[in-house]
Amino acid sequence: MTQIPAEDPWPRLHAEAVEAARHAYAPYSGYHVGAAALVEDGRVVSGCNVENAAYGVALCAECGLVSSLHRGGGGRLTHFLCVDGESRLIMPCGRCRQLLSENGGPTMLLLTASGIRPLTEVLPDAFGPHDLDRPDLA
């Protein structure tokens, strides 16, 4: 069950994402991205994009965020947002929505340019452990 924070988490998450975007390594595209999320235990995790001359091996900000989540002890993401280098809200790509689904679940909330939306709205019928025909993962 998603916990409701005692205070509005969005301003804090936006500030964290903006700060993360400042540390992005984007020498090829020049497109900086920062992401921040609230973990169910109250921690905030963040990440930035890291490009590579071999474009296909670049890391999205969401990848760094999820790595930070697990490095810090794991848990479930409850609130998430992503910004560009101009501090504007952006939508995670499809691959990253799948990554967020695995680590936040269907009730995770995303702050998007069109408002606050549950993950089920931005990734309906998500593929997950329940689809792997393994009862131990369901």
UniProtKB/TrEMBL annotation:
<dbReference type="GO" id="GO:0004126">
    <property type="term" value="F:cytidine deaminase activity"/>
</dbReference>
<dbReference type="InterPro" id="IPR016193">
    <property type="entry name" value="Cytidine_deaminase-like"/>
</dbReference>
<feature type="domain" description="CMP/dCMP-type deaminase">
    <location>
        <begin position="8"/>
        <end position="130"/>
    </location>
</feature>
<dbReference type="InterPro" id="IPR002125">
    <property type="entry name" value="CMP_dCMP_dom"/>
</dbReference>
<protein>
    <submittedName>
        <fullName>Cytidine deaminase</fullName>
        <ecNumber>3.5.4.5</ecNumber>
    </submittedName>
</protein>
<comment type="similarity">
    <text>Belongs to the cytidine and deoxycytidylate deaminase family.</text>
</comment>
<keyword id="KW-0378">Hydrolase</keyword>
<dbReference type="Pfam" id="PF00383">
    <property type="entry name" value="dCMP_cyt_deam_1"/>
</dbReference>
<dbReference type="InterPro" id="IPR050202">
    <property type="entry name" value="Cyt/Deoxycyt_deaminase"/>
</dbReference>
